[in-house]
Specification:
462 residues, FAD/NAD(P)-binding domain, 2 domains, 5-stranded parallel beta sheet, globular
Length: 462
């Protein structure tokens, strides 16, 4: 009996999940006859649909419906919850750790494979800004999105109860760094949510909240075009959002955001969304990388000059065959990542069967962005939309793209209910420390203080 072809998928994000899902269908016969096996190694047991993170932060969508459980969707794959630390493709081995290896104290384990799909995605590109590591908040995971929602409402609670005007002003000042999708959509949704929430505070008005968007270049949302970007700026400024172009965050030490234009903004909230970079794992492989640290690929989504290795998504530099200029690569965004997985799965199956491969070729269709409830911008197939039509298109597009019918139905139901009932304004910050109350209850009582022989309970010594 011949050994099965071992396919290792590193990463459970867009590329990892969709590639494994499509391989299940492409290799149905091989999987059933045990001629092939698929292993997915991922740090989390779910895939996060990141375009819905701003709405999850605003409370429009439940966090459960922003994630897709991998074990349910990839029922014919082996799911390993762990972290790959390095890959030696020359030896066809990956070094990883799992929750079990940590408990066993056995250290890292090696996993062999025959075909490698490397899709670890990206991480926030944090710059060496003083104080950023201590006070900054990211916006790439569902945990960060819900944590930010709780944080914003908690700041309003602090501002409502303090008697110190400096603390109040800092609590009600929110600084977002980065004018791309993540920064603009997160700020717009949370500003919407906070403005609505303010009606339930007797001493906070919407105009008391100060929102600042800091962008180092001269425009925001470059994907939707210059005209729609200018419209987005006008919309945000009309809502009293301070948009600062050509400005950088230089420091946020001691809870003071210092900007390159000389401004000093006391704040308890600095949200960092200023770009991404390939996951650190990419540098711990023997695969070729370009100057930006991304894996060099061919139009067939194979790793350039390497056999039996495939890549796509944020960590892959895929040549844009539809571009007129040589050397241009596809942008590392969800639009291309999801489409690349279809070609990737088909090419892996074709390679195993000795069939020819096909190139990934997709002309840029356009982009949509939400600016809060009933507001948005879009530039799709040359058509420019703004306001309600763009917002509706944003929702329709992402509803069509979120995986599984189960998730589509749940998200649609939540949108329908949110249109009929009031927003939820509850902060569940205690969820981040679920054992805190029990630890306090279970702690031994404090020892009684020693008294002098002549002291009585109601007396104090002179």
């Amino acid at each position: 009996m011949t050994e099965p072809v071992r396919i290792l998928v590193v990463g459970g994000g867009y590329v990892g999940m969709y590639t494994a899902l499509r391989l299940q269908r492409q290799l149905k016969t091989e999987l059933r006859s045990r001629a092939a096996e698929i292993t997915v190694v991922t740090p989390d047991p779910y895939m996060t649909y990141q375009p819905f993170l701003p709405e999850a932060a605003a409370g429009s969508i439940s966090p459960r419906h922003v994630v897709v459980p991998l074990r349910r969707v990839l029922d014919r794959c082996r799911i390993v919850i762990g972290e790959v630390h390095s890959i030696d493709h020359a030896k066809r081995t990956a070094t990883l750790s799992t929750l079990a290896t940590e408990e066993e104290g056995a250290g890292h384990v090696r996993l062999g494979y025959d075909e490698l799909v490397i899709a670890p995605g990206s991480v926030s590109r944090a710059l060496p800004v003083p104080g950023l590591a201590d006070h900054g908040i990211g916006f790439k995971t569902v945990e960060e999105a819900i944590g930010l929602r709780n944080h914003v409402i908690e700041q309003m609670d602090i501002a409502s109860s303090t008697r110190d005007p400096a603390i109040r002003d800092a609590a009600l000042t929110f600084v977002f760094v980065g004018g791309g999708y993540a920064g603009v959509e997160a700020l717009a949704e949370l500003e919407d949510m906070a403005r609505y929430t303010a009606r339930y505070y007797h001493n906070i008005k919407p105009e008391d909240l100060r929102w600042i968007l800091v962008e180092a270049t001269d425009r925001i949302l470059p994907e939707v075009g210059e005209e729609m970007g200018r419209y987005a700026i006008r919309e945000l400024r009309a809502r009293n959002i301070d948009v600062r172009l050509g400005t950088r965050l230089e420091s946020c030490e001691n809870r003071v955001a210092v900007l390159s234009d000389g401004s000093r903004l006391p704040t308890r909230t600095v949200v960092w969304t200023a770009g991404v970079k390939p996951a650190p794992l990419v540098a711990a492989t023997d695969l070729p990388r370009n100057e930006r640290g991304r894996i060099v690929c061919t139009p067939y989504l194979t790793v350039d000059g390497v056999e039996h290795a495939w890549a796509a998504g944020d960590a892959a530099a895929v040549p844009d065959v539809t571009a007129g200029e040589p050397g241009k690569e596809y942008a590392p965004n969800a639009q291309h990542a999801v489409r690349q997985t279809k070609v990737l799965a088909e090419n892996i199956a074709a390679s195993l069967r000795g069939q020819p491969l096909k190139e990934y070729a997709h002309a840029y269709a356009g982009s949509v962005a939400s600016l809060g409830l009933h507001k948005g911008v879009a530039h799709v197939y040359g058509r420019k939309l703004k306001g309600y039509p763009a917002w509706f298109m944003h929702r329709a597009y992402h509803l069509s793209r979120v995986p599984t019918f189960n998730r589509k139905a749940r998200v649609l139901a939540e949108w329908t209910l949110s249109g009929l009932f009031k927003r939820e304004i509850v902060s569940l910050g205690s969820l981040e420390h679920p054992r805190a109350e029990f630890e306090l209850a279970a702690a031994p009582p404090p020892a009684p203080k020693d008294r002098s022989p002549g002291d009585s309970p109601g007396e104090s010594s002179a």
